[in-house]
Amino acid sequence: MSSKERSLSLDYDEVLDYIGQFGIFQRKIFFLLWLVSAAGGLAVVVFAFTGLEPKYRCRVSPCETVTSEYYGQTGVLPAWYTNETIGMSNRCRVPVVSGSGGECEAGGATWPEEEGATCDYEDLVFDRSVMRTTLIEEYQLLCGRSGLRTVYNAIYMLGMLFGSYIFGWISDSYGRMKALMLAVVTVSLSGFVGAFCSGPMGLHGYAFLRFLTGMGGIGCFMVCFVLAVEHVGYKYTMLIGIAIEIPFALGEALLGIEAYFIRDWKTLQIVAYLPLLLLLGLYWVVPESVRWLIGAGRLEEAKEIIENAAKANGKETPVHLFKTDTLALNNLENAKHAESPEAKATVLDLFRPTKMALRTISMCFQWFSVTMCYYGLSFASTSLSGDAFSNFFLSVCIEIPGYIFCILVMDCWGRRPI
User: Fold this and answer.
1) Could you tell me if 94 and 60 are in contact, meaning their C-beta atoms sit under 8 angstroms apart?
2) Residue 258 is inside which H or E element, if any?
3) Does residue 386 come out as left (phi exceeding 0), alpha (psi in the -120 to 50 range) or beta?
4) What is the reported pTM?
5) End-to-end CA gap in the chain
6) What is the mean pLDDT of residues 83-107?
7) In this structure, is the dihedral angle defined by the CA atoms of residues 283, 226, 222 and 398, taken in order, positive or negative?
């Protein structure tokens, strides 16, 4: 919009002063968008269990059979191992076990300092106490290929990087709700189809779909965040901006509960992603952002939503703010403006002038640091000592008190001290 068009447009903040900045209408939208935020949280941590790297070791042929399990009947490693754990460097090496008469001596397993014999994938014994199957076994990301697990985990983050820009552009160009629905379809279908990738190219297909899942996941959260904030008045933007992140943590916790009952990675992948398609029903329940409609020149649609909001909040519609004749003129000018658009802001404006560039770089570095620690701790929680499910559940639920704390002190302490 040009400056002249903006002066003729609706002032939505002024409208909200009349119909309520956070009334029943906005609260209903806010809690419906909780579902989308939770979906974004659930999608990002599925790999914590489907891609869990189980403990594994080589089967010692003289001492055990093909049906042997990772732990013995007492819940610890077989008696011939000297330690309670096996070092990562020895997981795929066959130990030398002393003994006689077909019996293996307790504590008699040693690994030669020089390079010893290694075992094939078929001779590995896995710990099934957490997950019965994982994609790590499916695609044999074990032994010398174990480092690839980190790469395929990071592909989701690469998808988030591209998805932030792509869905941000779609949201600004075609509307919040259309972008949100496209994000839901992307995250749900790509995650669902990923469970069926098999064969020689299965790993590559899964990687591509995981990239798309990352795009859809960040699209869900980012667009629902913007939509929730744009529907309320300026007095509630801080509250809503933080509170919309609470269901993100609840979605992560829900995944932990699902994983506790579903220990097969393919089934868990399907159960986690496919039901997200139900969120498409929000298209007929959650209205488009009035602020976006005003900016796009679709003022009659904005007026209709405002009337519905006023009715839901029990307020009178501020018809004097609509300026019917002005709205018609503004629509006409917007049509003309579309034929000869003015220069629009681009991402390069974040780096102009120098002071803005320094702030942008500082914020990018802070987001990089926070995100690295946040997701690092979340994914590492399943590998800590103790129960993997309890560790994961507690690590994601601890976010909620943090959000509440920020809501309580943000205005009195300020942004920078927190």
Assistant:
1) yes
2) helix 246-261
3) left
4) 0.87
5) 36
6) 78
7) negative
